[in-house]
Amino acid sequence: SMKYCSFGSSLLLLCFSYHLRASVGIPQPQTGPSSRSSLRAVQTLQTNASDAMSVESFNKASTERLLARLAIEELLAKYAMSVDRRDWAQYKTCFTKDARIDYTAAGGPKGGVEEVIRWFKATFYWLGEMQHLVSNLEITWLPEKPNVCKTRAMFHNPICVWWMPFIRPLFFVGGWYNHTMEKGSDGVWRISTLKEEIAYNQVYGAVAMLLASAGLGIGLLVSACRGRKTTTASSSWWQLTLTK
Asked: CA–CA separation, 78 vs 148, rounded Å?
């Protein structure tokens, strides 16, 4: 009888527990198809949330890259205009303090910003107006250094000289600028290295043409002077002959 009493107590306790769960709204454990569907729904929501975070991160990175590209394009335009205008104070702001510049391909120096500016001032004394046209910008982003990138931009530079006002421009120079750009702690992009690469430089042809023209002019002038002397001597001999 004790065995039947224990079984009855267990059965009564189980019924009471089931009734309590139903009365307070505690869901009963399910293992059927509806339970598996709920699990799949939760997993889908988690996947969608993860995808949304990935898209948000991608959009943020893309926006940062776009803003960086615009800043670099503006920096190259400021560099070109500062050279064309001989604005050396603005030229300095395009570079980091320890920047290294290499203009040896164009016959210039290789060194720091101040050394390059001294060379510009001495060279530009003989030059007139010029235009640096910079385009075809290529940017190589460095994943391990988000605030550093490599750039390559094409340039075309027509140059006039004040002592030859009838030929404008006198010659053209073109090639590529190869940079390392760095974004400072102030959020501003600057050039840390610049290496000029020349595709064509017509200055040597222009100088050769001017020298050849000057030589031809001098030759014609000398020939004209000699011809005049010969004519004068012939006329004097003819007059002397007639007199005799």
From this structure: 19
State the amino acid at position 21 in one-letter form.
Answer: R
Which of 40, 13, 17, 39 has its CA nearest to residue 28? 17
Q: Which of 78, 102, 98, 101 is nearest to 90 (CA)?
A: 78
Average pLDDT over residues 137-159: 95
Which two tokens mark 143?
A: 């994943």
**Whole-model pTM?**
0.66
Gyration radius of the chain over CA positions: 42
What percent of the chain shows pLDDT beyond 90? Answer: 51
Question: Distance between CA 135 and CA 143 in Å, rounded?
Answer: 24
For 30, which DSSP code?
Answer: -
Q: How far apart are CA 167 and CA 165, in angstroms?
A: 6
Write out the two tokens for 215.
Answer: 């030589």
Residue pair 194/102 in contact (Cβ under 8 Å)? The answer is yes
> Which DSSP string corresponds to 104-159?
GGGT--EE-HHHHHHHHHHHGGG---B--EEEEEEEEEETTEEEEEEEEEEEEEEE
**156/177 Cα distance (integer angstroms):** 11
The angle subtended at Cα 99 by Cα 204 and Cα 96, nearest 5°, is 125
The two most distant CA atoms of the chain are separated, in Å, by 182
Check if the beta carbon of residue 160 is closer than 8 Å to that of residue 131: no
